[in-house]
């Protein structure tokens, strides 16, 4: 197996291991994070009904001013937008599903921003 396939297999196993222990509900949804080289995406998912409650990303229209600068600052902006939208819908806490990503950098900045804006994580 070449190195790229081996790394992807490790990421899939890590994501499955992390996701196995959590289940999002309407009251406490699962926050999933997807990180590409260029963009960051976050979704609040209700696993009981299989639906996405909220989403935010650096690709959202009208967010060009927030998408300038370091990627960790962009993650802070996404956390602030997601926390505000969740508060409007009555969501006060989430379960963090970091997927195959380690808890540092953009992932950590997003979660810390949610905490700073009043979400229980």
Descriptive key words:
121 residues, alpha+beta, four-stranded mixed β-sheet, 3 helices
Low-confidence stretches: none
Backbone shape: globular
- Strand fraction equals 15-25%
Classification by helices and strands: alpha+beta
Order of helices and strands: HEEEHEH
Please give the radius of gyration in angstroms: 15 Å
Average pLDDT taken over every residue: 88
Extended strand count: 4
| Physical arrangement of strands within the biggest beta sheet | 3-2-1-4
**Helical run tally:** 3
Largest sheet: 4 strands, mixed
Helix content: 25-40%
Multimeric status of the protein: single chain
What is the terminal separation in angstroms? 38 Å
Give a summary of the structure in a few sentences:
With 121 residues, the protein is α+β, with helices and mostly antiparallel strands. Helices cover 38% and strands 19% of the residues. It has a four-stranded mixed beta sheet.
Structure, described:
This protein has helices at residues 3-19, 71-88, 106-116; strands spanning 30-35, 40-46, 51-57, 95-97. With 121 residues, it is of the alpha+beta class.
